[in-house]
Design goal:
Two copies of one chain form a homodimer.
Chain A (H helix, E strand, L loop, with lengths): L12 H24 L4 E7 L5 H9 L7 E5 L5 H4 L5 H4 L8 E5 L8 H4 L8 H17 L3 E8 L2 H13 L9 H8 L1 H15 L6 E5 L3 H25 L33 H25 L3 E7 L5 H9 L7 E5 L5 H4 L5 H4 L8 E5 L8 H4 L5 H20 L3 E8 L2 H13 L9 H8 L1 H15 L6 E5 L3 H21 L1
Parallel strand pairs in A: 1-3, 1-4, 2-3, 4-5, 6-8, 6-9, 7-8, 9-10
């Protein structure tokens, strides 16, 4: 298809000047409207070397208010980036609501250069396409306006441009051996581009091929595409105001009649003091050794804790980390999002915390807040928390594609045990700070939360990322169960 | 002095258990008090390899609420970090008010390893000490509680520990050739430690040498030092509430009678259209070439704009960047700080934006807001803006030590010209969004702002970082003056 495109299209100088000026005014206005409507915008530039990305991006940003955009160059991943899932560095750069992010090369490197070079690094190609599709769809579902440009020139034109750059001593250094090697592989890249277009062109994030032989034609086409997409997105936002959240916790659909998972949990499981002490010592020694192993083998580990208030998350995490080297792990406590976090996709703040390969991150509460507290307290819309089940599964799958060991613990206690612990906290001076009116309020909504938890466990226990329910009426039992589950999962991974 | 220290001190097991438990409760309480009083805390761990930093840090953090601290390991700088001034990676990790940051190795690497290795990289040693002292004093002045531990063991003890680690196959990999090389250089490091203590022990950030042969003794000493310092800092905060800001713009002291800088500026300077066009074309071509040069030579460039509302900053920046490659520059517009930024030192948000060597960052308004808008509008205390002159000079000096080209432009217009432009903005549909009630309010305070600007120009025009006053009644003249000044400064630097 790319070969069929007519690359001879041109625009005259006078026509260009007038049209560009008009387009610049328009884009400036649309940027302000998008800002006021809190629409986040992503524009991706991919294409051939020497197709003029730098100049075309600069043309696009000149009429924009610099307070409202950032430009990112996706060079080959640096060390920090190579140690994380390949979408990580793009997720953390997704713009806040009302802002533009412009990418000079993007997540498509993975399915272009990496593919043609067949370095054998990273996940297989189809997995990468899958991860990209869910990434883009998740953003679009959250209200992002996404545009992708493929700057297209012929092999002959590329050759001509390289020669021109190399003739000028001031710019000769810009054409590298890599560039010339890629030039010789023009056909291989063409096939990669075609495949990329076929796999990732979607309503959510459409591709526009830009005939880039004539920079005036290319500039105008980019302006028109961007302004057109913004106008449509803005019109949609003005027509359909964002629905207001409504509180709804009851499980929906057939699942409501399914087996109640939490009901079947045996909360009498316990461990007596002496056995606990011995087991703790042994397991803590084991996990310290594994911490060294995962560092040497560059395995990333994510452990997340969810559970009732006073289920013992804090003490459990403390026993897990007590003997570890603090350089190898991090505990991330998750509370309500701050202003910056609220102005991004709800998964953004978790992406920013993803561990490097070789490190361990422990989340004290997590992204599951979306389908529990945010759902029950009406902090998001029903459509949003319904969509979240699939989004979370996709995110966890992306982590698994990267080789992450992912453990999810639900700490279960019964209402009587919770009451006992609340009272104990109130009566012990050193624990009093742990209990607040908030805890009592949540407790009164036990049933609503339970329904949400049941649905969460059902919909997000995937074969790759199952939940482990931890019987926690006896704290000692719970601590050893978690420690052993973590050790086993890591050992399994190191063997595999 | 270090050699004189009695390293045989020990604590018995029973005594330790009780004392540590007591210290843990206390530290937990103090952390919550520090949080409530918004006191930021930094704890630095330096010392010999195998002195037990990992274990001692873990002991310290276990009683802390994980929502309130972060641990950072200062490995040798990665690529991102090596391309910035050496304090950059620590500045951006300074904790928000109420939080702890614990550093496993720190900015002292520069004056320890780098010094002993004499790699000749980086600024000379005395410059580094100077930069460290101003960094720590700036934080202390802002209310930080700063503690620095030097974990000390003898050469014989270090040898014994290395041998023990190497005997165990599971841990043998942890002792590297580097470690052994440093062990042989024990005396050289001892001298470096002594020098470091002498140069950087201060009330603002005192050093505590910890005898680390006995880990129980070391743990308790660390706990006692931290809790003692926190108690003193908390008591001080409770006794003396933070003074409220008061508006005061009139220049103070002898300078008030000095020459009025702005009065002498010749605002009739201008350029006619045809000459402007030719000069613009020429200068834009020149700066594009220089952009490539600084990239190849890894020179960092910072250009900051300050000036009256409607002085033409936006249009000036646009002409500066019009022809540049967007991969090489970034425009950072500076508005009021957001919540996250407010919870840090006021210079923090600018440190996070410092360009990599080889790149250019253009600040549209800057850290000078502290001594202009924050001063005039009473957004900080008088003590704070008075202190800021010196702090800013120190920051700019640190940037210069790293080889940064730093340009500071004051865009000057007179009140009549401002009025003309305000009216034009109100009457032109496409410019109307640029003008607000805020602008008219600021205009009424012209004299107060002028006094603040005069004092700023006087106190922060250092030989290393002078201000350039740009006569801006004629925008064309102003644009060419800035472009040429930037080109000249870069050329000067490339020659040097």
């Amino acid at each position: 298809m790319l070969e069929k495109i007519d690359l001879s299209r041109k625009v005259g100088k006078a026509e260009y000047k007038e049209a560009r000026e008009r387009a610049e005014w328009k884009l400036g206005d649309l940027q302000r409207e998008a800002r006021d409507l809190a629409i986040p915008v992503i524009v991706v530039f991919e294409g051939w070397d020497a197709a003029g990305k730098g100049t075309l991006i600069n043309n696009l940003i000149l009429p924009l208010d610099p307070r409202g955009f950032s430009v990112y160059s996706a060079l080959p991943p640096n060390e920090e980036e190579a140690l994380r899932p390949f979408l990580w560095r793009f997720w953390i750069r997704t713009p806040a609501r009302g802002r533009f992010a412009i990418f000079d090369r993007s997540w498509y490197r993975r399915v272009l250069n990496d593919r043609v070079d067949s370095r054998g690094k990273g996940p297989p190609l189809r997995q990468a396409f899958e991860d990209i599709r869910s990434f883009e769809r998740q953003l679009a579902d959250d209200g992002f306006c996404l545009l992708k440009f493929l700057l297209h020139i012929s092999k002959a034109e590329q050759k001509r441009r390289f020669e021109k750059i190399r003739k000028n001593p001031a710019t000769a250094w810009r054409v590298t051996g890599e560039d010339l090697r890629r030039h010789r592989q023009y056909r291989a890249y063409l096939a990669a581009f075609e495949d990329m277009l076929a796999e990732t062109d979607s309503d959510a994030a459409p591709w526009t091929v830009v005939e880039a032989h004539d920079h005036r034609f290319a500039t105008l086409k980019i302006f028109e595409t961007v302004t057109g997409a913004l106008e449509r997105r803005i019109a949609a936002a003005q027509k359909k105001p964002k629905p207001r959240p409504s509180r709804r916790a009851r499980p929906v659909g057939a699942d409501a009649d399914g087996p109640a998972i939490l009901e079947g949990v045996d909360l009498t499981k316990s461990l007596e003091r002496e056995r606990y002490r011995r087991a703790l010592k042994k397991s803590q020694r084991r996990i310290r050794e594994l911490e060294h192993e995962i560092y040497l083998r560059r395995v990333p580990v994510i452990i997340l804790y969810e559970g009732w208030d006073a289920a013992g998350k804090g003490g459990n995490i403390r026993r897990l980390t007590q003997n570890l080297d603090p350089r190898g792990y991090e505990v991330v406590p998750v509370g309500p999002p701050n202003d910056t976090e609220k102005s991004h996709h709800y998964l953004w703040r978790f992406w920013t915390q993803i561990p490097k390969a070789g490190h361990m991150t422990i989340f004290d509460r997590s992204w599951y807040g979306r389908v529990m507290v945010e759902r029950v307290e009406g902090l998001c819309t029903e459509a949003e928390w319904r969509r979240a089940f699939g989004e979370i599964n996709e995110m966890e799958q992306h982590l698994r594609h990267f080789g992450t060991v992912l453990l999810k613990f639900w700490l279960q206690i019964d209402p009587d045990e919770q009451l006992r612990r609340f009272r104990e906290r109130e009566q012990t001076p050193h624990k009093r700070w742990k209990i607040s009116q908030e805890d009592w309020r949540n407790r009164r909504k036990w049933d609503e939360y339970e329904a949400a938890v049941e649905e969460m466990l059902l919909r997000t226990s995937t074969p790759q990322a199952p939940w482990t329910i931890v019987e926690s009426n006896c704290k000692w039992y719970a601590r050893i169960k978690v420690l052993d589950a973590v050790c086993e999962a890591i050992e399994q991974r190191l063997k595999g």
